[in-house]
Amino acid sequence: MVAFYGRQFSSRLLIGTALYASPTVMQQAIRASGAEIVTVSLRREAAGGKAGNAFWSLIRELGVTVLPNTAGCRTVREAVTTAKLARELFGTSWIKLEVIADDETLQPDVVGLVEAAAILVKDGFEVFPYCTEDLSTALRLADAGCRVVMPWAAPIGSARGLVNADALRLLRARLPDVTLVVDAGLGAPSHAAHAMELGYDAVLLNTAIAKAGDPAAMAGAFRRGVEAGHAAYNAGLMGPRDFASPSTPIVGTPFWHAVS
Amino acid sequence: MRVTVNGERRETAAESVAALLRELEYDGSHFAVAVNADVVPRARWAEPLLSGGDTVEILTPRQGG
């Protein structure tokens, strides 16, 4: 089991609800992933529009916990207001906090992020901040009261995997009591397994499943990748070595010392 | 009076959020509303809090990553 702000979940895979070819494909993928938590956003509804309420019905049918995001926010003020609107709309104090610094890379604005997180924690929110792998940022977020921290593996939608695995390993070592989630940049189940092998508590992804040839099948593959990586971490991985070490016993090797 | 709703300028007689939603034919129940970047909780939707020049955001749940 993994805990997010005191709530226990058995799945360590969180997935996004965007970019699917159809609502049916989205529902199939979420079910196949085994995810119990999905991310959602809030957007303007045109007069007379029904898109939002239709989407919400689909999510409710799945019986999953929702984690609203502040995607697209570029200032502390926008992010804080969006979080408050999300709390009103979704009836949850959970918020995936995004404050974006740069449109091309979607690089988190870590300065604004820490400031917004502190404001929201004081206001009673349970904040899931989307950050970089920078240790000082993660420490500041934890100091601000974030019990979950979500560093990226690589830029959103880039499918590059753990670009800076050493830094992610360092975060795990320095924040042993924080629930750590690798969020964004994962392209393959092996990337998810890699994150879990480092001792991460969970992973969050969207594009790699939604844009797969068969999203439901890929969701199942990610589910198994996460489970394999977590089981491997618990089992105790051996460290890397510089030279070979024979696995087959030396004793009793045929023709041993037979060469003259 | 003129207000801006989701980035569009509109003429309205609605003085409350509830009246504005009705006037613009918003259907269903899952909305969050901000006036001048402040959240208006559902409990205050019937109050006559709108005035000319206000900026109103009407939001619903959407796909997100």
In short:
The complex is a heterodimer of chains A (260) and B (65). Chain A has 260 residues and is an alpha/beta fold.
Question: Could you outline the blueprint of secondary structure elements for this entry?
Answer:
The complex is a heterodimer of chains A (260) and B (65).
Chain A lengths: L1 E3 L2 E3 L3 E4 L6 H11 L3 E8 L6 H12 L2 E4 L7 H15 L3 E4 L12 H13 L3 E6 L3 H9 L4 E4 L13 H10 L4 E5 L5 H9 L4 E4 L1 H4 L4 H21 L25
Parallel strand pairs in A: 3-4, 3-10, 4-5, 6-7, 7-8, 8-9, 9-10
Antiparallel strand pairs in A: 1-2
Helix pairs in contact in A: 1-2, 1-9, 3-4, 7-9
Chain B lengths: L1 E4 L2 E4 L5 H7 L8 E4 L2 E3 L14 E9 L2
Parallel strand pairs in B: 1-5
Antiparallel strand pairs in B: 1-2, 3-4, 3-5
Describe the structure.
- The complex is a heterodimer of chains A (260) and B (65).
- Chain A has 260 residues and is of the alpha/beta class.
- Chain A has helices at residues 23-33, 51-62, 76-90, 110-122, 135-143, 165-174, 189-197, 207-210, 215-235; strands at residues 2-4, 7-9, 13-16, 37-44, 65-68, 94-97, 126-131, 148-151, 179-183, 202-205.
- In chain A, the strands form two sheets. Chain A has an eight-stranded parallel beta sheet. A two-stranded antiparallel ribbon of chain A has the order 1-2.
- The mean pLDDT of chain A is 96.
- Chain B has 65 residues and is mostly beta strands.
- Chain B has one helix and five strands, in the order ββαβββ.
- Chain B has one helix at residues 17-23, and strands spanning 2-5, 8-11, 32-35, 38-40, 55-63.
- In chain B, strands 2-1-5-3-4 form a five-stranded mixed beta sheet, with no helix packed on it.
- In chain B, 28% of the residues are buried.
List keywords for this structure.
heterodimer, A: 260 residues, alpha/beta, eight-stranded parallel sheet, two-stranded antiparallel ribbon, 9 helices, B: 65 residues, mainly beta, 37% strand
